[in-house]
Design brief:
The complex is a heterodimer of chains A (about 500) and B (about 525). Chain A folds into three domains: about 300 residues, no CATH class; about 120 residues, no CATH class; about 60 residues. In chain A, about 40% of the residues lie in helices and about 20% in strands. Chain A is built from 15 helices and 16 strands. In chain A, strands 1, 5, 6, 9, 10, 11, 12, 13 and 14 form a nine-stranded mixed beta sheet that branches. Chain A has a three-stranded antiparallel beta sheet with strand order 4-3-15, with no helix packed on it. In chain A, strand 13 and strand 14 form a beta hairpin. The longest helix of chain A is centred in the middle third of the chain and has 22 residues. The radius of gyration of chain A is 30 Å and the shape is elongated. Chain B has about 525 residues and is α/β, with parallel strands linked by helices. Chain B folds into two domains: about 400 residues, Amidase signature (AS) domain (Amidase signature (AS) enzymes), CATH 3.90.1300.10; about 90 residues, no CATH class. In chain B, about 40% of the residues lie in helices and about 10% in strands. Chain B has 20 helices and eleven strands. An eleven-stranded mixed beta sheet of chain B has the order 1-3-2-4-6-5-10-11-9-7-8, with helices on both faces. In chain B, helix 4 links the parallel strand 2 and strand 3. In chain B, helix 5 runs parallel beside helix 6 and helix 11 crosses helix 16. The chains are: A alpha+beta (about 500), B alpha/beta (about 525). At the A-B interface, loops of A face helix 11 and helix 14 of B.
């Protein structure tokens, strides 16, 4: 990235729906996918006279997330009204938090297993709680039909997490999002499902360009652009790449600096793979925030906060470190495992403990278990082979009684037929081949393959591979490495 | 007809003893409404059949030996801003002309549970903004003492219907004096409870930090009867106070020994009508004769009350009324006219830039809906509040007002060190002629001078009749007490009513009926 003539500066605003049973200020269900406007009441549909009452559970959940993001939690926060007109906002204001958010000054550590950037901490400016708006479904051919409004989502608790503009590449931004999502799913505060809108990302991006007239001075900042409509982390990464290129081109033509033009909002067009300018307002909108007089301030004692902190459990960063230290696996592997979620990690730990070889367990879990889970789209809880049976299988591999490929065949039988290791091996006719039998077999192969033997004798040990293949054809139970060993040994003896 | 001159407390006991049916009583009030409503226009909506139906149901339940609740079949009028399931709740606004809420306000649910017959919906200033009922989009209620004069407001219908004996009990709301001021001008007793004493759930909001629902009736005793039904903690209102509700009706007749009355001198110094001042000074003598110690107290920041109030209340109102946008319920501008208007503007546009500046249909829908649906005073306050909350003005107006509000609270705290109740006038003058403030909204605002303090400080206040002007118009006495001291206010008011008969005076047309 250092070869670029500019630095990309990225700040992310992430909205996460909290996984509460009921909405933030009423008791309506937050279930996704119900028929439109069936999960509404006078409060969340903004009827005259209806009043909000805080869902304390949502607040605790938000505190849980904020603590995991290393934020400070004040003992006193309040609610403010953010006022704007839109049909999916039935009160004409959103209950949010303005000057006293429920948490601030946190950070999230990110790193890249592929080492594209140095491990770093991304600052969290604040995380605050607010209510979600409803959904507008616009007519495709504008002007020919009415828009439709679904208020089911209206009032769902949203945690808005605002990062510092401290990410300097799209890769860092993606790593931040991945780690954030992982953290929140570990905490069980959100399902972070982007397709269902429970995690939404807006990015603020601009460029810092070295000042050609003052090489040692501060860089020139280009106007900040807010990018919206990114529906996957991949889309975020691509949109940011695109936007950096675009801003660089604009800079070269216009030389517009931060402050020269109003902040622009652009939407990512997934199909065209470009960002498009959205209708910009002449003046920046004035939300006329003021304290919501219908709600009382929230007081949360240091004791209650401490209780929530104590119940956070082991978070992804700590878990990765533990796996690396306890089971000797590499950061790349711990990352893959931890990214799969706590249940898979628990499975791995049990397997590693029982077979006593963390690396071997890690390889099998990553290559075989994950492949099947992905293929069948099932979770580890539905995986047929429990760690104890799996450990038995790995013991055979460790002892050399099974090679990897035969081990896989056994595993497949265990999964498909629900067999134990012993039964699966019996079904496959796997029996240990006596060494004398093996010597006999290799001698016959050497006798039958003078050309290969000559190759081996000439130092081409790879040629032994062909003999292994033939040996396996004659007896699938042979241990290939032993066959190799014997064939090389016997070849050198042959004349 | 003498039935209508009885107090609510007397009527409840007749009902309880089976000497009177709710149906007969309700019919008597309905007949009174029918006879005089043409002049007074206190009600926006009276459903005779529905009221009688409720009364008959209650009578049947009584006959079956069921507990009828503390109101046991008594008719109650409610201000037309309390959401009532399936019943049009207009706030006297075109905006909500056809709005039927899908739910009951907590207060309505409590009235129903207490055995009230909901006899009608009383007129008010639109969205409770005003002091004369002249801001109602539908009709102007007349003062029963003189139909050429205002009944006060915003709960003008609520006060007038009690004065005209159209209902024994009435529920209003008070944001800056909207119960106490019309009670004073109509010669009835009206109480604004402590902020949070009565649930606001289902009260169509004007200014959330100031609004409070309260009772109006002929006497302090009757007010006590109704307050006991209305008051209490409500989990649906985060600002409602979780404190037990005293048995007001049990204690209201107990005089207060050694009562310390604080005469608010600041409220006597302002441009006060001489008849009002004389009546208030006479009330002081009444209290002294009852054994009270009267001492002068000062509320030095009270003179900033109006300025403070008219920043905070419109600010909150501008936000609370944002929901009336034509999108979900209530009034919406005619869509075909809107489309035609926009099409014409597009056609007339001289350039693309000009066309791009035109409203989108959505924005035009908001603009026209709100322009057409709200009356002038409501729009005035929305503009005031929007301005005060705007970026760059917030600190100078809204934040400053909050600071002064704090000072006003401190004034009261200091005054209540010296006095148990504060005494003064409710209004600067008796009822003004209709149209008096037509071109003078500020003049209208200034009539709230003595009442807004209680709302800003969140304390309790009561207005009770204490005299008449030379023209024979009622004059109100204002008593204020610390938070949650409604019981003290009611007892103090009742003491006064044992020594005076102003509360028994009725307009001629009521008094002459037999």
């Amino acid at each position: 990235m250092s070869e670029l003539p500019y630095k990309i500066v990225i700040g992310l605003e992430v909205h996460v729906q909290l996984a509460t049973q009921s909405k933030l200020f009423c008791r309506c269900s937050t279930q996704f996918g119900a028929p439109p406007n069936t999960q509404t009441c006078p409060v969340c549909s903004g009827m005259p006279g209806a009043l909000p009452v805080l869902n304390r559970e949502a607040y605790r959940m938000a505190v849980r997330a904020a603590l995991a993001l290393n934020c400070e939690i004040p003992e006193f926060t309040k609610w403010d009204r953010k006022q704007y007109y839109y049909p999916d906002l039935p009160k004409g204001y959103q209950i949010s938090q303005f000057d006293l958010p429920m948490s601030q000054h946190g950070h999230l550590a990110i790193s890249d297993p592929k080492n594209r950037f140095e491990p770093k901490r991304v600052g969290i400016i604040r995380a605050h709680l607010e209510e979600d708006a409803g959904k507008s479904m616009h007519d495709e051919q504008a002007g020919t039909a009415d828009s439709r409004i679904d208020l089911n989502r209206c009032g769902t608790p949203l945690l808005e997490i605002v990062s510092e503009p401290e990410m300097y590449s799209p890769e860092e931004a993606k790593a931040y999002l991945t780690e954030l999502k992982l953290l929140l799913t570990y905490l069980e505060v959100s399902d972070c499902n982007m397709q269902e809108g429970s995690l939404r990302v807006d990015a603020n991006v601009n460029l810092h360009i070295p000042d050609p007239e003052a090489a040692d001075g501060p860089p020139i900042a280009t106007p900040i652009v807010e990018v919206k409509n990114m529906n996957s982390f991949r889309a975020v990464e691509r949109a940011l790449h695109y936007e950096a290129d675009r801003q660089w081109e604009v800079w070269q033509e216009s030389h517009q600096r931060l402050g020269d033009v109003p902040k622009q909002t652009r939407g990512w067009d997934e199909n065209a793979e470009i960002t498009r300018g959205q209708r910009s307002k002449e003046e920046s909108s004035d939300y006329r925030y003021f304290p919501d007089p219908d709600l009382v301030p929230v007081v949360m004692s240091a004791k209650e906060t401490a209780e929530i902190r104590n119940q956070l459990g082991e978070l992804p960063a700590a878990l990765r470190k533990r796996l690396e230290e306890t089971y000797g696996i590499k950061p790349y592997d711990s990352d893959v495992l931890v990214n799969q979620g706590r249940a898979l990690v628990d499975y791995y730990i049990e397997l590693a403990e029982q077979c006593g070889d963390g690396k071997l367990a890690s390889n099998w879990v990553q290559q075989d278990v994950l492949r099947l889970l992905n293929e069948r789209e099932i979770s580890i809880d539905d995986y047929a082979v429990r760690p104890s049976a799996f450990a038995e299988l790995l013991a055979k591999v460790q002892d050399g009684k099974l090679d990897t490929s035969r081990g896989r065949e056994v595993l497949a039988e265990m999964i498909e037929a629900g067999l134990s290791v012993a039964d699966a091996m019996e079904k496959l006719g796997i029996a240990e081949v006596d060494d004398s039998e093996l010597v006999e077999l290799c001698q016959s192969l050497i006798a039958a393959n003078p050309k290969i033997v000559a190759d081996i004798q000439a130092g081409n040990l790879k040629a032994a591979g062909a003999l292994i293949g033939q040996a396996k054809k004659q007896n699938p139970n042979v241990n290939p490495s032993r066959v190799r060993e014997l064939c090389i040994e016997l070849s050198s003896e042959a004349s | 007809m003498s039935l209508l001159k009885k107090s609510a407390v007397e009527l409840v006991s007749l009902l309880r003893d089976g000497e009177l049916t709710s149906a007969d009583l309700t019919r008597a009030y309905l007949n009174q409404i029918e006879e005089h409503e043409g002049t007074i226009q206190a009600f926006l909506h009276v459903d005779r059949e529905a009221a009688l139906q409720q009364a008959e149901d209650l009578d049947r339940r009584r006959a079956a030996g069921e507990n009828m609740g503390p109101l046991g079949g008594l008719p109650v009028a409610v201000k037309d801003l309390l959401c009532t399931r399936g019943v049009t709740t207009t706030c006297a606004s075109r905006m909500l002309e056809n709005f039927r809420p899908p739910y009951d306000a907590t207060v309505i649910a409590r009235l129903k549970a207490a055995g009230a017959v909901l006899i009608g919906r009383t007129n008010m200033d639109e969205f409770a903004m005003g002091g004369s009922c002249e801001n109602s989009a539908f009709q102007t209620t007349k003062n029963p003492w003189d139909p050429e004069r205002i009944p006060g407001g915003s709960s003008g219908g609520a006060a007038a219907c009690v004065a005209a004996a159209m209902a024994p009990l009435s529920v209003g709301s008070d944001t800056g004096g909207s119960i106490r001021q019309p009670a004073a001008l109509c010669g009835v007793t009206g109480l604004k409870p402590t902020y949070g004493r009565v649930s606001r759930y289902g009260l169509v909001a004007f200014a959330s930090s100031l609004d409070q629902i309260g009772p109006l009736a002929a006497t302090a005793e009757d007010v006590a009867l109704l307050l006991e039904v209305l008051a209490g903690h409500d989990p649906l209102d985060s600002t409602s106070i979780d404190a037990p509700v005293p048995r007001y009706i049990e204690t209201v007749r107990q005089p207060l020994e050694g009562l310390r009355v604080g005469l608010v001198t600041d409220h006597l110094a302002e441009q006060l009508d001489p008849d009002v001042e004389a009546a208030v000074r006479e009330a002081v003598r009444v209290y002294e004769s009852l054994g009270a110690n009267v001492e002068e107290v000062s509320l030095p920041h009270s003179r900033y009350g109006i300025a403070t109030y008219y920043v905070i209340a419109p600010s909150e109102a501008s936000s609370n009324l944002a929901r009336y946008d034509g999108a979900h319920y209530g009034y919406r501008t005619d869509e075909s006219a809107l489309q035609a208007e926009l099409a014409a503007e597009r056609a007339a546009a001289q350039s693309e830039q000009e066309e791009a500046r035109l409203d989108t249909p959505l924005v035009r829908m908001y603009r026209k809906t709100r322009s057409e649906g709200f009356g002038a005073e409501v729009k005035r306050r929305i503009m005031l509040g929007t301005y005060a909350l705007s970026s760059g003005y917030y600190d100078a107006y809204y934040l400053k007002a909050l600071k002064v509000r704090r000072l006003i609270v401190e004034d009261y705290r200091a005054a209540f060190q010296k006095a148990d109740v504060l005494l003064g006038p409710v209004t600067p003058s008796p009822a003004m002629p209709l149209g008096h403030f037509k071109d003078d909204p500020l003049g209208m605002y200034l009539t709230d001078l003595f009442t807004v303090g209680a709302n800003l400080a969140g304390i309790a206040g009561i207005s009770l009749p204490c005299g008449q002007s030379r023209e024979g118009l009622p004059i109100g006495l204002h008593l204020q007490a610390p938070p949650l001291e409604e019981e003290r206010l009611l007892r103090a008011a009742h003491m006064f009513q044992t020594a005076t008969d102003w509360h028994r005076r009725r307009p001629d047309f009521v008094a002459s009926e037999d």
